[in-house]
Known about the structure:
- The chain has eleven helices and eleven strands.
- It is an alpha+beta fold.
- The chain has four domains: 2-125, GIY-YIG endonuclease (3-Layer(aba) Sandwich), CATH 3.40.1440.60; 135-206, no CATH class; 214-285; 305-349, no CATH class.
- Helix 10 (305-320) runs parallel beside helix 11.
- The model is unreliable at 5-19 (pLDDT under 50).
Amino acid sequence: MELQGNRRKRSPADAPDAPVTPRAGEEWFARVAVPAGVRTLFTYRIPPEMRAACLPGSRVVVPFGRSVVTGFVTAVGTNPDLPSGRIREIQEIPDPEPIVPEELLEFTRWIADHYIAPWGEVIKASLPAGIHARSVPGFRRTPPGEAAFAAGLPAERSPEAREVLRRAGAPGGVPRSDLARRGRRTLRAARDLVRSGLLAAVAVRRGPRVREGRARFLGLAPGPAGERPSPGAGRSRIAAAVLSALESGGGELSAVDLAARLPSSGAAVRRLVRSGILIESYRPLRPSEPARTPGAGPELPRLNPAQERAVAAVAAAIRGGGFRVLLLRGITGSGKTEVYLRGIGEAAAAGRRSLYLV
Length: 358
């Protein structure tokens, strides 16, 4: 199969280095890593209207067996190594651009190879939980069921059967769990309708469990003449530090960035908001997007002596090469995470990669 994009080196079916340009009338296909207990990559047809958005690293919603799952495109191209009649089609591309950067796609491939793990499972574990589509058992009206519902069920059918048939007309069908919450008689009516040919047992697609959230931003409130509040004016040390941080950040920072710069500023921020010196605002935030202020990077916190010793040991181990095991001991809130982050920075500066498991 001619494919372009990331590929597993052990698979001779993957792409050549040169990009593939399909000729007029050619179909496009995607190699997809599915988060399931298999190490095989699966081929899906790309609908013409999705070609521009289907790139290596894209999330795709695909049929998988009797279910619907979210997979990840690892390569795209033409001429599949399977009969085209056997290839199923991508149902949806949820994101306008690939959600998995090229570096992360390649790194997860290495992890999958090194630890003999399914590539799709590794990619899924590297992304925020709950953002993927999934499917659950359910029921959908069949063509005879549609006709029966339009004509009105016979009088001998129970009220539960009428309600089930009504709900099963929803786009995609009705999840079995929704009917189960209405009691055993409702589920029994659904099974009777399946035996009568009016319903079909299907996989009903459910959207992501995590919905679009909001990111909190904090800004300096303008004074009567449009001037910004002064960090001084008899304020407490932490309140003055909050105002200085916002001033250096252009007058506004996300709450995440401000907390990273000033970890103990929560109470001072609340007082400044109540007094009208700071303004709170909220903006839509997709689960896959960071909550940081675009273009703003918080200053690194100053390390305490114990952290400095730990970071020095980690940095020496990274620069020395080879394999080392380091155990960092500390109670909750003692600053271990900052040591991990500095170690990751040292590894990145040395051209190496890091795997941070929580």
